[in-house]
Design a protein that fits this description.
single chain; 3-stranded antiparallel beta sheet; 4 helices; 6 strands
Length: 136
Amino acid sequence: MSIELEYALEHKNDPAVLCCRMEPGEISHHNLEDPAIFPDLVDTGLLNLDGCLTIGQCLGATLKETSDSLTPLTAAIVDNIQDPAADEAPAEEAAAPAEAAAPAMAVPAGTQVTVGGGVVKLYIAEGKDIAIEFPV
């Protein structure tokens, strides 16, 4: 599951791993997996973080090729690797106005969101009656 910008900045020195399939383009916090799950994945052999860049190095960098979820971001597949120490203060200042200007999420008519029993249920009546459920 992707992470929020504030969380990404708090964990800028943790490994950067894609949360979902990504086409080539600019890497944002929306593309990155929560580093809290990595120890279990490494222990079971499902994830290898050797040569993995940090979240700070990848925010704003460019993915060169289409990559699947849980792909560690390395210098081989990332261009324009960032130096988080060089622009630490400006990045935080730039992030604050963007978040303040973001409008509240509008929920279309006919949409229901419920949470119960550790599962979020989202039902969207418009379009193709999309129903999404995931554990919380």
